[in-house]
Amino acid sequence: NYTIDTANLQTGKKPYAVKLKGVKTASDVGIVRYVPNTKSEQLAFGTGEDGVPSVFTLEQNYPNPFNPTTAIRFEVGGLGLVSLKIYNVLGQEVATLIHSRLMEEGMHEIEFDASSLSSGVYFYRLTSSSETKTFIDVKKMMLMK
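Below the sequence we write its predicted C-alpha cells.
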C-alpha cells in the first residue's frame, strides 16, 4: 500500500485519479480512493470496502433497436476498474469500448458505433471490479441496418 500527501488538494465530491508509470495493466494498480475528513487525508492504494462500488447499474441502451449508433449508460458507486465489451450471439467479442479503466463514482455514458457490424442481436457486458469483488451485468441490443 502507498499514500500520497494531499495537503495541497482541494476536497470535493469527485475523487482524484492517479496515473502510475511502470504498471503493465490497469488491474495491477488496484483501487485508488480519496478519503476526506480524516485525521490525515490520503489517497489510498489497495483493497478494502472503500474501493468497492456500492451502486452498480447497467441501463438498457438507447435507442434500441439502433442504426448505427446507440448510447450505453451505467453507474458505479465508487472508484473501480471498469470494462465494457460487445459480444455477438456466438459469444465472440466484437468490440471493446472500455478496457480496465479506473473510473470514478457516478453515471457514465458511452456511445457505441456499430457501423462495421452486421445487423443482428448483440450483447454488452459491463464489469466493475476491485481486488476483492467483481460486479457483472449483461444486456441485449439489436442492430438493424
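The chain has a mean pLDDT of 75.
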